């Protein structure tokens, strides 16, 4: 079946992923081939010390992304998109979306970037004997309780962003197990919230007298391949303002960007891992067994099928680097040159390969927000050098690329060195890897292992949630997600693997020594830079 026939007959899957700086929609055929892409750029706001997006921005963004994809389908194939085989929604994990019984938002949406939950996260970690990161939904919920915020007594639904959009489209209050693992600890045996911990939370909060318990307000947990409702008539109208999209389309469980990243890199089986690098950066390693103890630097989450997975999650990735590239673009315009931003990124990234292995003594921290792994709760941006540093463009760019992996590297060291976790392959995806052979080479140096980047890597998690949507309607009887991906999607795809060289590894290690030592300066900056 050709591409046009696939679209006309609805032999397709659509995924929409709400990332930090871009909402991306991907339409594929059932072999995984990308047919069309839709884009909507946006950015979070920092309002009253909260990183947030307004509900109006969220709605406009989802619609704008779909409309962009709709227009591309019409332009490429001469078809007004009506039939779709299945749909999936994903978004940045964690955070706090709070609704009342009428479905109205009753508190600002808090993204993963917020680190205003230290007291709650500490208490819950002690209560559960399980690491609760600051950005998890239950930490936000409990912090709102501790702060005695008025809206808590009116709560009817608390969700992540993906589960919220899924509810808007289907009316179903459900969530994929991978995204649920960023709300509350998951029992991988039951693929549900850990019941003992649920009881502990309900017992602890009973004294506040709310008329709800945790399971009353959290979405129901589903695993990959389970039916998660269908697109309602109202949902179709919400998504497609042209009115052409048909209702009744099956929808897969909504997932977080960690789960879609694992799917997009075929990293859902034990001993596989992936690094998603962009605005935030996180490494996911699928485990054969649970870790030996609790680490505050490591999140324990799951794959979309419920396998236990260790996550080293850095709030900060390439945001600061992106601003510097924008500055170079401004300079080019000032000098009278018309510069394509994609080409500018490519040239600057590639030029960094000419830099010294240790970045010439330069150091940068792209902390737009607090950083959980390094225990820094406020964002501070810094670029540091000494009179002896070799300050040139290549080293400058290399330092910013290295530091995008710095915090994640600290978490990975715990897994590889302390826990002796075995990994057979590391896959890279996200914008960090878009320039061929640059980010991939630096990640290989950081992890000390070969790194593979597939040709589909630039499509990232949006392609991953689309694959999960396709799996819902095209899986064979008893076919596991890992088998579906390995045998039916990735078998025909091309990729490139780069192994680390000793000079790169040594240089990255020297940079990391500088990075760790400089954290004291970064913490001091929080105290002195209060203007």
Would you give an account of this structure?
This protein starts with a helix and ends with a helix. The protein contains 18 helices and 22 strands. With 531 residues, it is of the alpha/beta class. Strand 1 (12-18) and strand 2 form a beta hairpin.
Q: Beta-strand level of the residues, as a percent range?
A: 15-25%
Overall spatial form? globular
> Care to count the β-strands?
22
- Span between N and C termini? 62 Å
Largest sheet composition: 7 strands, mixed
Strand adjacency order, main sheet: 16-17-15-14-20-21-22
Helical fraction equals: 25-40%
Rg, Cα atoms, Å: 22 Å
Describe the structure using short key phrases.
about 525 residues; alpha/beta; seven-stranded mixed beta sheet; five-stranded mixed beta sheet; 18 helices; about 40% helix; globular
